[in-house]
Write a structure and sequence with these properties.
This protein is of the alpha+beta class. About 20% of the residues lie in helices and about 25% in strands. Strands 1, 2, 3, 4, 5, 6, 7, 8, 9 and 10 form a 10-stranded mixed beta sheet that branches.
Amino acid sequence: MRLALGIRYNGQAYDGWQSQPSGRTVQDKLEAALSKFADQPIRTLCAGRTDAGVHALMQVVHFDTAVKREPFSWMRGTNRFLPDDIAVQWAHPVPDEFHCRASALARRYVYVLSQSPVRPSLDSGRVGWSMHPLDGDAMRAAAALLIGQHDFSSFRASACQARSPVKDLRRIEITRVGSGERCRWHFEFEADAFLHHMIRNLMGCLVRIGRGDERPEWISEVLEARSRKIAAPTFSADGLYFMGPLYDAKWGLPDEATLQAGGAPYDGPP
């Protein structure tokens, strides 16, 4: 039987998603919990690997097992063995043809940024920070120039293992919550796929434009240069959340993971 799980986690305490010898990754914790519940080793594949400090509102994984349990039992039983900052949100049996990564039609992220003269305290590690006021209109004008299929080499980390830097960036939505010098900004991104550090590098450029250090048209120059040296420094991982992949409705997954349903809207950090 092949099973798909929706996972939510706070990434502050972990060295990213992918298993490492340290054992301090989300994948290591999840597979240990699944293996305890199933009383046999279980290995998982994920829809999108997240870096150290990055959070997930809906990571999707799949695995194969001969153990027969109800989906509800997989959710509750696995959560019993997980640390408090990782939790299975749902479990669904899927056909053998389903692959959490290859079957995804789109992927979504949100970056939560605190604009304040004082650094975050209670939200430390869960939001990015700008001490300077940001111009939303300028950032939206720049974001519009990024929409479409482009070579995003200028926003690609040197360690990126993607076969091609060409991605279809379908949506960037920038909204402000609150007014005055203290507020929050939400940057939502949707694409067919993303390069390593792509969103954090885009954020570095958008924030630079929002501060008034560059004009919106500068983002086109960065894009066309296809050189990481031209772009702004990589922005902090703290405020980055993987909102999850989106799939065809034929797989029977929850609406929040279904493209036709539009996916679950972002409603703030967990």
